[in-house]
Design a protein that fits this description.
alpha/beta; Rossmann fold; homodimer; 3 domains; six-stranded parallel beta sheet; 522 residues; globular; seven-stranded parallel beta sheet; 19 helices
Chain lengths: 522, 522
């Protein structure tokens, strides 16, 4: 349980019952996060409407928690092959030298991003151009928009409907939410995807600067233009995607500084990293029996998240063979053909109750791809990690655990039975990994209020106060040259230039006169 | 009461009883803040030792809350005439045009500051050179140093003793705490003393930039050198005052964003603005009778804080005459000779229970100098303010209330009976002042936990976890040219220069060859 007694159930006086909340979630693992919050909001009497894709993977249309409204499907959204294809491409990049491979991956993501924003822009345009749909939303008289801005639909729709906006956010535009909302000095704030940490040498900072410049290029030359037509037709002049995002009232950021490197932040950023974690529940009887059968050696839990559950055959064979040599038992969330090298100690399952397993006293190690949810669960329950990063932020996430001595990382593209077994044995035998993650766990749980209560408080705050305008910095509304005071700097340069010129002129004049007088005398 | 049910009394599990806390406070109004926290810490079983000046104004040597250790007196510390002298000088500045007067005041403060740091440096040197004193402190085995870094003694002593450090802070070095700890874009973050708000035009930004440059000059050429001898003799090479301040674990900042303009912040900044406020207590019978005698018109409360209680005779006469014309009753904290123009409706007192008066339902208006404590009390109790700023931050403080429509400001140097009466009537009759400050009050009280509980939580957090290193950004440790990536920028310029040079060279070569061939053919 969280190391704090400030719990929402005790907070009654300021509750706003019956707030009307419009939710535009993102599918996949992002939905897992959002749903946890929606359940809590529902239990507190709020009225929730969810916009979902007609062919969503994860978001059910029928729910006791919310009413749903279907919107047209995002093209390719249900195409899991897309991610497998991406995985193969990314794994090719991983073979390149460290300085280059992050740019290779960035380039792949840009490609995907450009396509995604085009599709999104079409979808949003079709909604804004549909007066019946818009009228229906307007008639609902929502109090706030709660959205995950990893995709842009909620942001644009919420702004169009002039709703106060609460973000449940980790990713936005070209990286982690902080990079958009807060000043991020390139010298010690690693840009997302750079695989750098906060202590950088000259080469690292050069790399980080290049990533930063590339992200500025992406923002202004790839993302913003995708929506220019929508903004021209439906918003006041000068609006762009970034300005709408920066106008959000509250940013519930799925981050925590035992995980993120400390860096500047803003008054309307609320940290809710790990909010989904709670005490582990008892396992189903069969699974409990399996855990207990591991004896003193304990259990290794392996899962690679919601997007990519299947690895190349060669890799799964190596993993299975390495597992087979462990004295531990292994439970592995697995899809596809059973590896021939599978040991007797390994149980393959199509789904597993991950938090309850990680919170089980017999669990010794978590073999994970490094998705945010899994990483926070590992921290919460204090289980050391052997990371097998595959895509997106997983490399950055695992790096954060690694530099704190709480994880080891094995690259999937170069995984062999030997190096995987070696890493497994290291993390299982060397107590420093467990000590380090348990220290992170203690710090993570040591909070004045649990992050979930914090999230709910600020959502209700936005309902009560019709947003949180007084927490929004005005700097966001300045043109970039004003923000950086370049006009003032130019003015100073001109003034100093004129002063120097005048003094030189006066000096010369005096010198000449002196010289003339001298010559005259002579 | 605070709009939240998360109260410290309910938080038992994580309490650290018996933490050993070394406190280095600042005298005067700063002590009022610190003492409130010490009482709470004492009630939670912590063991507190306070270093106090042997001739302190406010800090008693005998207390049931703490043990005190006397240190030599700060020269001139008890010299209230110093502040009266300062007041006269500042009021002269007030007559200058707006652009200039803040620089005039800044210059006066620099003068005072230079003297103050010299005295402090001598005092600190005498402590560090006293092995018996240092041994006594070391033997106490304190868990943390809790200090107000407006003066430097606690910071340097705490660092010398290698104690985790918690700041109870509003002012540090050259301005408000944020300016030291967080990135502060000059384009929308007004520098302390500039009397600017966050929406600035070109001239404002130019002024702000000049104030910023001046504060950099003060930091590096006036403050830091005062201590260079101490650092040479007692600390590792490269240490300066700023580096010690930035190494503090937790900054309990006496700020709140209903008052401060929203701006970047840092993970180890905890907002405790208004932490000293609590429900008003019943007044003494006589005072209550006076309040009730005001009938429907209510009462005006006037107090000018702890430092300057006496105004020039001419001014007090004008104030008294204006008060005499009000239908309200007036209670005025006053020292000196009774004004001849005093009305029957005005009660002069040497001391008043300010929070309880401001929280009284009959109170209609607070005539205040704009010290931080009073301003937060006005916000907490929702009482509109007529500001009479005299010194230091009071101009900036009142500006923040004024731009939010919750206060009017009258300059003491130009105060007449007429303009003061006019301002009084305006604030008393125009409901917008009350509406605005009551809106601020509602927002200020709408928090997940009361600021006092937050303060105590983070002090105990620092005790439990021996500081909060994981919340400290590493950027502070970088040299300034690295922090701003100037080395990387220089490298880029060189690379681009070389590339341009090479391309020009190659182009020329090709052109020349082409030209030669052409000439040959011809």
């Amino acid at each position: 349980m969280w190391n704090c007694i400030f719990h929402l159930s005790k907070r009654l006086e300021i509750t706003v019952f019956g707030g009307r909340i419009l939710v535009v979630p993102v599918d996949g693992s992002h939905w897992i996060n959002m749903e946890v919050i929606l359940r809590e909001l529902h239990s507190r009497g709020h009225n929730i409407t969810v916009l979902r894709s007609a062919k969503s993977w994860y978001i059910p249309s029928n729910s006791s928690v919310y009413t749903s409204i279907d919107v047209p499907m995002l093209e390719d959204e249900s195409d899991r092959d897309f991610y497998l294809d991406m995985l193969l491409k990314v794994q090719k990049c991983r073979g390149y030298p460290a300085f280059i491979r992050t740019f290779c991956q960035e380039y792949l993501i840009t490609d995907m991003m450009a396509l995604g924003h085009e599709i999104l822009a079409r979808l949003i345009a079709s909604m804004l151009d549909d007066p019946v749909f818009i009228k229906r939303l307007q008639d609902e008289k929502f109090d706030i928009m709660l959205t995950d801005p990893a995709l842009t639909m909620g942001v644009i729709l919420g702004s169009y409907l002039k709703l106060p906006m609460v973000f449940n956010v980790r990713w936005i535009n070209v990286g982690e939410g902080h990079l958009t909302i807060a000043p991020s000095p390139v010298s010690y704030v690693p840009v997302s995807g750079s695989e750098l940490h906060d202590q950088m040498d000259f080469l690292d900072r050069t790399k980080n600067m290049l990533h930063h410049l590339y992200s500025v290029y992406e923002q202004y030359f790839i993302i913003n233009p995708s929506y220019s037509d929508i903004f021209k037709r439906h918003f006041p002049p000068g609006t762009d995607l970034l300005s709408l995002q920066l106008a959000a009232d509250i940013w519930l950021l799925r981050a925590d500084f035992v995980f993120e490197f400390p860096r500047p932040t803003m008054p309307n950023v609320v940290y809710i990293g790990g909010f989904q974690c709670k005490e582990a529940q008892p396992l189903p009887a069969e699974l409990e029996a399996f855990m207990q059968s591991s004896g003193e050696h304990g259990v290794v839990v392996m899962s690679l998240g919601t997007i990519v559950s299947a690895l190349p055959r060669k890799t799964t064979e190596a993993i299975a063979a390495a597992f087979a040599e462990l004295p531990q038992k292994v439970i592995w969330r697995f899809e596809g053909e059973q590896p021939s090298s599978l040991g007797n100690n390994t149980l393959l399952v199509k789904w597993l109750p991950q938090p309850d397993l990680l919170g089980h006293p017999k669990t010794r190690l978590f073999v994970a791809h490094g998705g945010t949810n899994g990483v926070y669960e590992a921290i919460y329950y204090g289980v050391p990690v052997l990371g097998l990063p595959l895509l997106f932020d997983q490399f950055d996430n695992l790096l954060r655990l690694k530099v704190r001595g709480a994880a080891r990382v094995v690259e999937a593209y170069s995984l062999t039975k030997e190096n995987f077994l070696d890493a497994l044995k290291d993390v299982l035998k060397n107590p420093s990994y467990r000590d380090n993650i348990q220290r992170l766990s203690r710090l993570h749980r040591d909070k004045p209020i649990p992050p979930m209560d914090n999230a709910i408080f600020w959502i209700e705050y936005a309902i009560r106060n019709a947003g949180a305008a007084h927490l929004q910095a005005v700097g966001f509304k300045l043109p970039w040259y004003t923000y950086f005071c370049l006009d003032v700097a130019a003015f100073f340069v001109v003034v100093i230039g004129v002063l120097v010129w005048v003094s030189v002129f006066v000096c010369r004049l005096l010198c000449c006169r002196g010289f003339r007088r001298k010559t005259k005398k002579e």
